[in-house]
Structures are given as structure tokens and as C-alpha cells.
């Protein structure tokens, strides 16, 4: 029984840690990731959205990486940041309830499960840069 509890706990920690890691990606099939929009010949809006557990610093790095990719793809050498914005957003989610299990005292108490209702919304962070591509 004790081995089953230890195995369950290790599996829970592994899933929890892997869910917290943000990776750089396009926002193709969801709300997180990068999006960009060309608004003039050499002016773009670039945004990156991630969950609230991702640091603002990491989201800025992802956004700047996408700015550099656009610059290179379009044949320019540099980009100037004309403006930047960061805000907390609420993202739609198919998850409307989260359950968290506590192991309790392994010798005496049974595990306890607490459930929390999310309402189908998850807090996120979004960084938006307006950039101008340049060769000089």
C-alpha cells in the first residue's frame, strides 16, 4: 500500500512539474503562444500569451524572439520597439473544475480531495510589442 501511495505521489509531482514548463510556440490550436499582425510595410504587432505561472520576463523573451524571427524572415537587419504592453488576461478553458488531493498523514488519515471551480476561465499574461523593421 505504501509503495502505491509513493508511486502515485511521484506521478503527481511529475505531471505537475511538466505542466508548469512553458515552451515557445505559435498560438495555432489554443490561446497560448505567439501571434503577429503586419499593419504597414514594415510595422508589426507581435504578442505572446501564456498562463499566469509563466514569469513576465519569460513572456517578454518569447515575444522578442518572435520579433527577431520576423525581422530575419522579412530580410531586415534590425527592429525598433515602438511600444510595448503587458496585461493580465482571462483565457477560456475547457476545464471548469480542478481537484487537488492531499496525502494526509500516511499512517493514520486517509487522503483528502479538495475541488475548486474555475468557471472555465484561467488567468494568463499577454505581452504585445509594436515593432518597426529597419536595415539602418
Give helix and strand order, one letter per element, not per position: HEEHEEEE
pLDDT under 50 segments (min length 5)? Answer: 1-19
* Sheet of most strands: 4 strands, antiparallel
The count of DSSP E runs of length 2 or more, i.e. the number of strands, is: 6
Strand percent estimate: 35-45%
Oligomer: single chain
Radius of gyration, Cα only, in angstroms? Answer: 21 Å
- How many H/I helices? 2
Percent range of helical residues: 25-40%
Please identify the structural class as seen in this structure. alpha+beta
Mean pLDDT: 79
Major sheet: arrangement of strands: 1-2-6-3
Distance between the termini: 68 Å
- Number of separate structural domains: 1
Shape estimate: elongated
How would you describe this protein?
With 136 residues, this protein is an alpha+beta fold. It has one domain. Helices cover 27% and strands 43% of the residues. The protein contains two helices and six strands. It starts with a helix and ends with a strand. The N terminus is likely disordered.
Amino acid at each position: 500500500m505504501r509503495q502505491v501511495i509513493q508511486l502515485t505521489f511521484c506521478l503527481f509531482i511529475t505531471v505537475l512539474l511538466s505542466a508548469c514548463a512553458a515552451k515557445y510556440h505559435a498560438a495555432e490550436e489554443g490561446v497560448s503562444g505567439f501571434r503577429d499582425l503586419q499593419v504597414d510595410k514594415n510595422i508589426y504587432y507581435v504578442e505572446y500569451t501564456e498562463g499566469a505561472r509563466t514569469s513576465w520576463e519569460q513572456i517578454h523573451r518569447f515575444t522578442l524572439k518572435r520579433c527577431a524571427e520576423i525581422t530575419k524572415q522579412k530580410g531586415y537587419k534590425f527592429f525598433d520597439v515602438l511600444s510595448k504592453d503587458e496585461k493580465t488576461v482571462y483565457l477560456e478553458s475547457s476545464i471548469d473544475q480542478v481537484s487537488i488531493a492531499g496525502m494526509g498523514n500516511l499512517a493514520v488519515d486517509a487522503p483528502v480531495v479538495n475541488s475548486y471551480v474555475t468557471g472555465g476561465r484561467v488567468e494568463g499574461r499577454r505581452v504585445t510589442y509594436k515593432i518597426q523593421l529597419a536595415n539602418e
